[in-house]
Amino acid sequence: xxxxxxxxxxxxxxxxxxxxxxxxxxxxxxxxxxxxxxxxxxxxxxxxxxxxxxxxxxxxxxxxxxxxxxxxxxxxxxxxxxxxxxxxxxxxxxxxx
Length: 97
What we know:
Radius of gyration: 21 Å
Number of domains: 2
Structural class: mainly alpha
Order of helices and strands: HHHEEH
Distance between the termini: 31 Å
Number of strands: 2
Region (Disordered): 1-21, 74-97
């Protein structure tokens, strides 16, 4: 057995399989199965297949007392504004990456 095969075979239960240019199709299948087997596997799989969670833009009331009134502004959703489900998906996105 070659060194590359040793690396590929060893500990495949503990980490994702190694990728080389000859084995992309079986590698991608094994990687998805590996992702599903992890804690939060369904969320990790979702992140891989559909991309990471996109934070919403949250509207804020504007400042009408300014010389040029501002009706409304927006900010990107913060961690404190995420629901529990959204927060779990963001953490799974990090794991998927």
